[in-house]
Fold this protein.
Amino acid sequence: DAGVIQSPRHEVTEMGQEVTLRCKPISGHNSLFWYRQTMMRGLELLIYFNNNVPIDDSGMPEDRFSAKMPNASFSTLKIQPSEPRDSAVYFCASSWDQGEQYFGPGTRLTVT
Amino acid sequence: QQQVKQSPQSLIVQKGGISIINCAYENTAFDYFPWYQQFPGKGPALLIAIRPDVSEKKEGRFTISFNKSAKQFSLHIMDSQPGDSATYFCAAERETSGSRLTFGEGTQLTVNP
């Protein structure tokens, strides 16, 4: 198995632009998690899905952030409009129910 | 009540020494306590985990000690190696109700050769 796949690995964009991060979970997993990692705040859960349904989005910082999971093999995290304070590494993770979470390699986002 | 506090923020150990990282939690409903290891440029990966029905779990050089009454748990790395240099995160979850992992702040471990 290729593990959790995220794209792009690096994204540099200007303030105000729309950013879309993509994630392909491990085949067979039914839970998907989006995290944000910064030096100041550490690892924060943004949202998680179970069976493609958003279960807890209380970590989504504000309305500029949205996440979708149209099917079991794909999810997106969108930021519109992006701001410099959104600069971080965004991780996607997947698991089978409440089992071990497998993290992807992350997307390093820089908003200038 | 969802906080997990981790210390130290950074740790430098000589090769062959023991590395100890501590975590404390507040929510007594937590029932699953994993440790994750993260290398630069990579995502975190599960290292070892414990549930509160035992006070210690050992896997190779890695041991979790768990003190339920004190609401604390720690990671011990015996015979630390330069390859163990990474960032370590403790976490906690109320697994039985499907709640999410709450992570500690992370500890950057450096093992000098």
